[in-house]
Every structure is written in C-alpha cells, then in structure tokens.
Structure to design on (489 residues):
C-alpha cells in the first residue's frame, strides 16, 4: 500500500488500500460545512453533532443525515462490517458513510486528526481538511490496550490513555488496578486511599463507551495476588493487613484456592469491579505466572483440578453477569513441553490440562514477549495455533516486541483469531509507550505504522494533544510523553 503523502497526520493509516489525500487542495471544515452522513444507525448523527460541538465549538460543521442521492458527492466504497467507514472531502463537500455508529465514530476520529486550523490568523478560525477519499475497515475484531493503574500512576494519565486509545481506533481497554481498586466489601484489599473508586471506574467506562471503547476490568484470580510488581516484594493486602493471611498461599503470591473464603472474596471483588465498570461483555481474570501450591490443603488435591474448578466457577459467575472471561495463556502450557521452546509457557502438566477442560468461551490472551528465533517463519505461532485448534478465542499480546506485532496480527486475522492486546505494564509514557501504541494500532487495524518524522513525531503528537484536550489536561507534567524532560536520555 503506498503511504499517504507526508502532509497528512493520521494514525492508524486507513485500511486496506484506499486512502488518498492532498493537503495542497484543502477543503473547508467549519461552521459553513455540511457533513453529509449516510448511515442507517439513528444514533450516528446525534453523536457526530454532539462531538463536533465539543471538539470545534462555534466552528463545528453541521451534520446532515440521510442526504438525498442527488446531494451526495461520488462516494468511495464502504467496506462491509460494523466498524467500517468511508469518507470523502473534496469540491462536493465532506461526506461520511458507515453501517453503524461504530463506523461513523472511526470516520470522525480520522477527520478530526486530519483537520488543521485554517491558515493566516492568530487564533483558530475554522479548519481545513485535505482533499481525501478513504475506504477503511479494521482486520481484527478486538483491538485492546492493557493499562495498569499503579499507586504511582497519575489518575489523569488513565483517562488520557483511554481517550488516546480510542483516537487510535482501539475498541477495548483492559484496566488492571494494582492495589488501586477501592472495594466497598473488602476495603483491606488494596492500598489506603485507593484512587480507582467505583465512581472513578464508572466515569472512565462511560467515557470509553461514548468513544466506542469497552473498559474491561482485570482481577488477578490465581497468581499475582500481591497486586505489586514482583521485584517490589510489596503486597497490596498482606503488608498492611496480615490478618488476611489464610486467603493466600504462604508468602502471598497465589490465592489459596482450597479456601472457600478466598474464592468467595475473589468472586465478590469480580462482582464489584464488573459492576463499577458498567457490566462490560468481557472480564480479565489474569491467571498468569502462578506458583506451585505450598499450603497443605491446596497440596492435598491435584492442583490443575483445583484451578479448573476455581476458574470454571468464576467463568460461570461472569457468564451469568453477561461477561466472557479472559485469561493469560501461560499456565495453560506445560513449560517443559518441547513444542513451546522459544515461547512463553509457565505451567505444569497439571495446569496445562486446563486447556482441555476450561469452558471454551474463555478468551485466551497469549503473551509472547521474547524475541523470536529468526529462523522461524513469521506465520509460525505454535502456542496461538494450539489454543485456536482447541476452539478458544485467542488474542495475541506482544508488549515490547514491536517486530512481532504485524506477523502476530496477520496470523490471527488469517486463522480467525479474535484480536491483539497491546500490553504496556509499567511503561506509562516515553517513546517506548508511544511505539507500543502506534505500532499495535497499525498492526491491529491492518496497516503499517506511519513512519515517525525525523525530528518530531507529528502524527502521534496530534492524537496525544487531542486526547489531552478532551481529558482536560492543564498541567505541565501531564502533557506529552514525560513529566520531566530533563530526565530524557
Ligand atoms: Zn492453599
């Protein structure tokens, strides 16, 4: 696909191949413009009107829904799919076509990033679009970012990240509180003054919903029960509340799965988190990197059986609430199995047997962070193939492995996989975070990332600044990629 000319700032670049734009033939995009909308979804026109007003104020273009055939400029083809859109700006004006509100939203995200202030004035007085024709649709159904809410994470950063993800056309944000969820039923589970209150989560979920992005909460239901980075040896429950020791395996890494009280607490926390996030259709149960059991009760039974019982009962609980569970993949693979050599696998034969017994509506999030053997062909993903063959919906998670994002997404698209999850972990700013998002956005959508400009990454800066504006960012440290530019290398 030829890349569009350099005067256009947009990420991800539209797919599959139809993107023509010409900033040398600009088109007005202001209060004098009527955006002709061709979309059968009655929610689309009010959404566009409301958001154009938010974004452009008195300079907002008008939205004219269901314009008659004669009024329409020649349309670029609208691809199939709920999230597809077509857009055009030219001598005949500006036009958006979509099947649903979801597609109309992505069209608006594209036009918003492409619109620049009209030239020649001090302050913005209306905008210009390049002449353009876009015919666009994503290749993967699930395009997720995974965001960690640490005690150190500025709360405003989460909202900006969610808004930025939506601008980059991600449709899901998995939010993992690291001891930062404030549970009403179990206030001991988390650090004092935990910022992720039900109100805060509900507000973020509503922002996401409005922008076409589902906020999916994560609760580590098996290992990682300390809710703290491993190297910190902190424990968000036991450090300040040692009285809850029986709920965890000795030392505190796994929940004690043989303890009915532990399982009740996990279920109640899941219930609260799911409710706080507005009962989304997905819920992430974590379940990665657990350790073998060390308490006498958990050691009495085959551990795989205990884990299966726990995860299956949580899955059934979530199903009743209308949510599909997601789990990390690694405990479902025996680390000693030679088939996974060079790939992440953390389980034992007992936990690997779970892959045959877990309900098939569980979404397996297969995280492969290591550099791949260059001798392997790019479409050789044995662990993801394994879970697909077993009938699971599979999402690939590449984290810092930027080079793996495109082949991983292409493999999943070709094999009917569900999507891509861009994990970011403790990277909450900086050029690495930027590269994760921009590369994953392109891979999940099905286009190459826009090459960064030599001096200043203008395409990403445009999206980031729009997200900051929407999130109400007004302080120096909260803007850009870092809080302290002197700390940059
Ligand atoms: Zn135990």
């Amino acid at each position: 696909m030829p890349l569009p000319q350099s005067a256009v700032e947009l990420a991800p670049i539209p797919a599959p191949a139809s993107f023509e734009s010409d900033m040398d033939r600009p088109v007005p995009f202001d209060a004098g413009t009527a955006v002709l909308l061709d979309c059968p979804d009655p929610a689309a026109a009010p959404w566009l009107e409301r958001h154009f007003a938010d974004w452009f104020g008195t300079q907002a273009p008008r939205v004219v829904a269901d314009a008659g055939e004669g009024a329409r400029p020649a349309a670029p083809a609208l691809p199939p799919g709920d999230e597809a859109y077509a857009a055009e700006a030219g001598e005949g004006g500006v036009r958006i076509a979509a099947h649903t509100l979801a597609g109309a939203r992505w069209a608006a995200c594209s036009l918003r990033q492409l619109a620049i202030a009209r030239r020649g004035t001090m302050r913005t007085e209306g905008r210009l679009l390049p002449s353009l024709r876009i015919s666009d649709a994503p290749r993967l159904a699930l395009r997720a970012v995974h965001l960690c809410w640490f005690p150190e994470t500025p709360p405003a950063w989460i909202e900006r990240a969610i808004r930025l993800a939506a601008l980059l056309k991600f449709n899901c944000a998995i939010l993992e509180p690291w001891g930062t969820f404030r549970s009403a039923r179990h206030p001991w589970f988390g650090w004092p003054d935990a910022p992720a209150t039900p109100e805060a989560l509900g507000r973020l979920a509503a922002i996401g919903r409005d922008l076409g992005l589902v906020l999916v909460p994560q609760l580590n239901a098996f290992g990682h029960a300390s809710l703290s980075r491993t190297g910190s040896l902190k424990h968000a429950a036991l450090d300040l509340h040692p009285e809850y020791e029986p709920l965890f395996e000795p030392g505190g890494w796994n929940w004690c799965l043989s303890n009915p009280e532990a399982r009740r607490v996990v279920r109640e926390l899941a219930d609260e988190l799911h409710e706080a996030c507005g009962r989304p259709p997905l819920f992430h149960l974590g379940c990665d990197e657990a350790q073998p059991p060390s308490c006498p009760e958990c050691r009495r039974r085959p551990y795989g059986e205990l884990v299966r019982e726990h995860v299956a009962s949580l899955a059934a609980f979530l199903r009743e609430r209308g949510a599909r569970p997601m789990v990390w993949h690694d405990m479902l693979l025996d680390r000693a199995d030679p088939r996974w050599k060079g790939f992440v696998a953390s389980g034992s034969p007992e936990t690997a047997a779970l892959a045959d017994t877990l309900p098939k509506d569980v979404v397996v999030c297969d995280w492969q962070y290591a550099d791949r053997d260059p001798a392997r062909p790019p479409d050789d993903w044995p662990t993801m193939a394994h879970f697909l063959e077993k009938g699971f919906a599979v999402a690939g998670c590449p984290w810092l492995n930027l080079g793996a994002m495109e082949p991983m997404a292409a493999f999943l698209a070709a094999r009917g996989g569900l999507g891509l999850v861009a994990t970011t972990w403790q990277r909450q700013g900086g050029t690495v975070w930027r590269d994760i998002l921009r590369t994953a956005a392109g891979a999940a959508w099905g286009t190459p990332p826009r090459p960064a400009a030599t001096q200043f990454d203008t395409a990403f800066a445009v999206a980031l600044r729009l997200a900051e504006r929407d999130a109400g960012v007004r302080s120096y440290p909260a803007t850009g990629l870092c809080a302290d530019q002197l700390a940059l290398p």
Q: What stands out?
A: The two ends are 35 Å apart (CA to CA). The pocket of zinc ion is lined by residues 249, 256, 258, 293, 295, 297-298 (CB under 6 Å).
